[in-house]
Amino acid sequence: VQLQASGGGLVQAGGSLRLSCAASGSVLSIRDMGWFRQAPGHQRLTVASISTAGVTSCSNSVRGRFSISRDNDKNTIYLQMNSLKAEDTAVYYCVLTARTRWDVWGQGTLVTVSS
Length: 115
Prior knowledge:
Layout: E1 2-6, E2 9-12, E3 17-24, E4 33-38, E5 45-50, E6 56-58, E7 66-71, E8 76-81, E9 90-96, E10 104-105, E11 109-114
Parallel strand pairs: 2-11
Antiparallel strand pairs: 1-3, 3-8, 4-5, 4-9, 5-6, 7-8, 9-10, 9-11
């Protein structure tokens, strides 16, 4: 399975962005999908996840501002990011679970929020 993320960019604080991530290859093996992020000098952290049934989870730092959704027909997930803050600046990685938890990672897309 391969992942291709898109939608990152530069946005002002308070603005919005939507990230997309499309899976290809052995898509029948896909289970949970999600997003991680890594800010400069920080470790990679979970942002949000979604199961094949559509059950979602978001980290405390983004709950109420970010939402994750999934289109199983397109094997694509989305991360809608609203009310962006400077501290949301990071490289965002799309991930999925195929055989073990979060065993497939995308290439990352940079989100920069200017204050």
